[in-house]
Structures are given as structure tokens and as C-alpha cells.
Design brief:
The chain has 22 helices and ten strands. By secondary structure, it is α+β, with helices and mostly antiparallel strands. The protein folds into three domains: 187 residues, no CATH class; 200 residues, no CATH class; 57 residues. Strand 8 and strand 9 form a beta hairpin. The longest helix has 21 residues. It starts with a helix and ends in a 12-residue tail after the last strand. About 5% of the residues have low confidence.
Length: 544
């Protein structure tokens, strides 16, 4: 066992070196393709890929490398993050565990062939299995050298341990832990005098992870291998096939989870004395409510995405019914629900998720809510405040300033603070009718809450409904969503995305009445999604 693990570690080092050596401006063996990017798989992409490649029932045990948020999206960080030594060790252990399960008696019937003898090496059978899984794991065919090195490893260990499946286990593990699986290596080929576009296999990966949040299936890989994805007809056929699948919901769930920053729930906490209802169960339910209602409107009903700001339709479970203070019919875990016209609710901006994520543990925060919503929905980030800002006025609720609004107004008189607060606070102040966990309220410390505010360079609005209509009619909202979907697919900073890059797709989006499906189809079929920048003259990529 020890010698086998050492062999795998050696193979890992060789794979890393080969991967790094490939990041150069030199042409590959075919004389055309160049490495233009490496994108580390997210935890969900890894899990979904393993499940699709090896089938259901394979358990994944281990710790994944964290991501960060770049330009409003976690997906953008996958193009700049590498793997730490501790991360490689975790990935190695996961790979060994996964491979062990794949060759176990419980699952080995799924393998493409049986060895002539289970107690001896069988290179032909090993080659067939490794070639099949290598294609799916690397999202391209293995080279002759890559395949032969795994067959040799499998042979050596099968012979040493007198067990074909023991040898195969380490051959498969070496594939699962290789950088070519952990990272989506994007290759580009010339497309004109100075332009580059992704090669067919890289197009397949970008398309599949956008649409389904998983590795390309065999049909999509065949389209890449046959050259079909290099033609408009072939690309359109695959786009339509992927969009017609119910798995599109999985892909868009991942996008909205990222765009709406629902991962923020991992760090949300509330004062248990002031808000005893709050707990992990409500946090999980709140995230699910937002995803369910968003996907129902944009995919299932193919509705206008702007209605996400104004709809009163949602889905509730028992946990959320308690926060919203509405009766829950015991007909199922999740039921559709429509808030009453006088509920004060307006789209996803007044759901428990958005209200609780961007508040303090013991009280609401117009500033945090305003900063988050203008960034997430309008692509207008607020500058980070200076380190020496005095927040004592805002935090002091024991004085004569009873409401957060009053304390904010006093704080914002500071010229250093005014510029940022006049940008974010008006949006957040309209949501003061909701406490830190999203419950409805009309007073704060005995004072009636004023929900009217003037948007900077905009209209005067009142309450969440006024904010919802303002965002619905603001052209910056659908433009921001389109921009973030494009950046999400490409793994780039949304704030550095060129507006002209998605101009044609955005016009299709507008013409279709702001339907998500129209935007997704236009982006996936358009050439801009697959445009690539070749490496610099020194061959270095932006890897950190």
C-alpha cells in the first residue's frame, strides 16, 4: 500500500510539471492549439463530475480548497486560484477513496470489461477502462503517453499485489488526482489573423459547466471529437439539447447561487436571544426559497427576469412560514405561496435570504443591504470605507437617535462618509420594514419607521414595493445579470467584461422580453463566449 501511494505521489508531481510546462506560447503537437487558461473545479463541479462519470452511489469524502469572490463572482476566482500542498493531499486522498469504490465488488460491474483473471494484470482490459474514464475525466482523449503510463502503473501494481482491481484502483486514482481533471485546461486555436477561439473540447467543457454545472457527457464529447462543435449547426444542436434537459436547472441553480451571493449564508449568524427562531435550518430553507422561486420564474415559467424584483410568488416550508408569520399547509415539505398585496413583500429582495445575509447579528443594516443590492443587482460596487471611520453614532441605540435611519443620517454628515452612504443607503432604507432575519415590522425602539427615500440621481420611492418597481424598471438590472452570466461562463471579473463582447446576445435578450433562456441560448451560440486571449510572449498565465 505504501509503495503504491508513493508511486501515485510521484505521478502527481510529474502531472503537475507537465501541466505547468504546457502553459506556454509554443504550439502543441498538432501545430495550432495553445493553453490559454486553467480553471480549478469548484466543489459542486467536482462532485457533479464524479457522479456523472462513475455513476450514483460513489461517496466523496474530503476537504475542498476554498474559493474567493472576484468581481462579484466566485466563478471568476477559479481562473486565478491554484491548489495548496494541503489541498493536493486532500485531493489525493479523495481520488484514492473514489477509485477504491469504483473497483469494489459493489460497483465493478459498471466497468467496461472484466480481466481474464482477477488475480493478474490484464493490460488490454486496463487500457479499455482507463481510456474510457480518461476521456471523461480529462474532458478530452488521453494522449498515447498519458494512457500508457497509467496502463504501466496498473500492470506493475496488479502484478505486485496479485490483484487486477488493486492495480486498476491506482491507475484510476492517478487520473482523478491529475491537474487535467482538477483544472479545466482551456486550449485555443487561431481564428483569423490575430484572434483565437477555444478548441472543440474546451468549448464542450465551457458549455457543459455553464449549462449543467458538470463535465461534458459522452454525446457532447463526440460532437467535439467529430468537429461538429466547430460548425454553427453542430453547436446550435448541442446548445438546444443541453437546454432541453432538466439538468439545465442544475446549471442555473449554480449560477444564481453565485450571482446572488447565497454562499454568504456560510458566515451568517444571529443573536439567539433576540431572534430565537433563527438557526441553520432556517438559513438552509432561506437559500432554497430564493433558488426555487428564481428558477421557477426564469426557467419553468420562462418569465421576464425583471419580475424577480416585484413578484409576490414564492415557495415556503415550515421553517420559513414561522419567520413570515403565515399559516403553513401541511401538504408537503415545500409549497407554492403568494404573499398578500399588503404584505410589503416584493420579489427576492424581501425574501429572508437577502434580508438576513446583509444585516448585523442583532439588527438590520440599511448600509449592508444597500451595498449588497447595488453590487449584486446593478453591478455598482460601493468603495470600501477607510479604516479610520468612526461608527460610534450608528452603533449607539441608547441615545436620542432611536432608529437606524436617524443614526445613519447623523453619521453620513461626515464628508468622508457621505459619498458612499448616499450611494448605498437610500436602497437599504426602503427595506427597514424588515428586521435582521426578514420578519415584518413597522416600528423600531418605539419609533415609526420611515420607508421613504430619494435615490441618488433618481426618483423618490417608498418601501420595498417602491424599490422593487424601481429595480424592475432600471435597465441596469437586466444588463448586470447578462454581464454576470457571461463572466460566470468565462470565469472572468464581471467588472472587466467588455460591454461590446455580449452586445449581440444582450440584444436577443431584450428582444425576447428579458427571458433567461433567450439570453443563455444567444450567449452559448455566439462566438464571443469562446474567444480567447493567447498567452503573453513569456508564456505566463495569470495564475496565483
Amino acid at each position: 500500500m505504501r509503495s503504491a501511494l508513493l508511486l501515485i505521489s510521484s505521478l502527481m508531481v510529474l502531472s503537475v510539471a507537465a501541466s505547468q510546462a504546457a502553459v506556454s506560447p509554443d504550439k502543441d503537437a498538432a501545430g495550432a492549439a495553445r493553453v490559454v487558461g486553467l480553471r480549478r473545479l469548484t466543489q459542486e463541479e467536482y462532485r457533479n463530475s464524479i457522479a456523472d462519470i462513475f455513476g450514483p452511489g460513489i461517496e466523496i469524502r474530503g476537504v475542498f480548497e476554498p474559493t474567493i469572490r472576484v468581481g462579484g463572482l466566485e466563478a471568476a476566482s477559479t481562473a486565478v486560484l491554484s491548489v495548496t500542498p494541503a489541498g493536493f493531499e486532500s485531493y489525493t486522498n479523495m481520488a484514492d477513496s473514489i477509485a477504491g469504490q469504483v473497483v469494489s465488488e459493489k460497483f465493478r460491474t459498471r466497468l467496461a470489461c472484466k480481466p481474464q483473471s482477477p488475480s493478474a494484470a490484464d493490460d488490454d482490459c486496463a487500457r479499455q477502462i482507463l481510456q474510457h474514464y480518461g476521456l471523461l475525466l480529462f474532458r478530452r482523449p488521453l494522449t498515447a503517453e498519458e494512457l500508457q503510463s497509467r496502463v504501466a502503473l496498473t500492470h506493475a501494481l496488479a502484478t505486485q499485489q496479485k490483484d487486477f482491481y488493486a492495480g486498476l484502483r491506482y491507475g484510476l486514482a492517478s487520473l482523478i488526482q491529475a491537474p487535467d481533471f482538477l483544472f479545466r485546461k482551456e486550449m485555443a486555436v487561431p481564428d483569423g489573423a490575430s484572434a483565437y477561439t477555444l478548441d472543440p473540447y474546451s468549448k464542450a467543457s465551457r458549455l457543459s459547466y455553464l449549462m449543467w454545472n458538470t463535465t461534458p457527457d459522452e454525446e457532447l464529447l463526440r460532437a467535439a471529437g467529430s468537429g461538429a462543435l466547430s460548425t454553427d449547426a453542430g453547436m446550435n444542436k448541442e446548445v438546444d439539447r443541453l437546454m432541453a434537459s432538466p439538468r439545465l436547472e442544475t446549471g442555473m441553480r449554480a449560477f444564481f447561487n453565485d450571482m446572488l451571493e447565497l454562499d454568504t449564508f456560510d458566515t451568517v449568524s444571529k443573536d439567539s436571544i433576540l431572534y430565537p427562531k433563527w438557526g441553520v435550518a432556517i438559513a438552509n430553507s432561506a437559500r432554497e426559497e430564493t433558488l426555487r422561486s428564481t428558477l421557477d420564474l426564469t426557467l419553468a415559467k420562462n418569465g421576464d427576469v425583471r419580475d424577480l424584483m416585484t413578484t409576490r410568488n414564492t415557495f415556503l416550508d415550515r421553517n420559513l412560514a414561522a419567520v413570515y408569520q403565515v399559516p403553513f399547509p401541511f401538504g408537503g415539505d415545500w409549497v407554492p405561496y403568494t404573499f398578500a398585496p399588503d404584505s410589503g413583500r416584493s420579489g427576492i429582495i424581501t425574501q429572508v435570504s437577502m434580508l438576513s445575509m446583509f444585516s448585523h447579528p442583532g439588527r438590520s443594516s440599511p448600509t449592508k443591504r444597500g451595498v449588497a443590492l447595488t453590487d449584486i443587482l446593478l453591478c455598482e460596487p460601493t468603495p470600501t470605507p477607510p479604516n479610520n471611520v468612526d461608527f460610534s453614532v450608528i452603533n449607539d441605540a441608547s441615545g436620542g437617535l432611536k432608529t437606524v435611519r436617524q443614526r445613519l443620517m447623523a453619521h453620513a454628515t461626515n464628508p468622508v462618509c457621505a459619498a458612499c452612504h448616499t450611494h448605498s443607503d437610500p436602497v437599504g432604507l426602503t427595506l427597514e420594514g424588515f428586521d435582521t432575519i426578514g420578519g415584518r415590522r413597522t416600528t423600531e425602539n418605539g419609533q415609526k419607521i420611515d420607508l421613504t427615500t430619494a435615490i441618488r440621481n433618481g426618483p423618490t420611492i417608498t418601501g420595498a414595493e417602491g424599490l422593487g418597481h424601481y429595480l424592475h424598471d432600471n435597465p441596469k438590472f437586466p444588463a448586470c445579470m447578462a454581464r454576470k452570466l457571461f463572466a460566470y461562463a468565462r470565469g472572468e471579473d464581471a467588472y472587466r467584461t467588455r460591454p461590446t463582447a455580449l452586445q449581440a446576445a444582450y440584444q436577443s435578450f431584450v428582444d425576447a422580453g428579458f427571458r433567461l433562456r433567450a439570453l443563455l441560448k444567444a450567449l452559448a451560440e455566439g462566438p464571443e463566449l469562446y474567444r480567447a486571449t493567447p498567452p503573453a510572449a513569456d508564456g505566463k498565465l495569470a495564475m496565483h
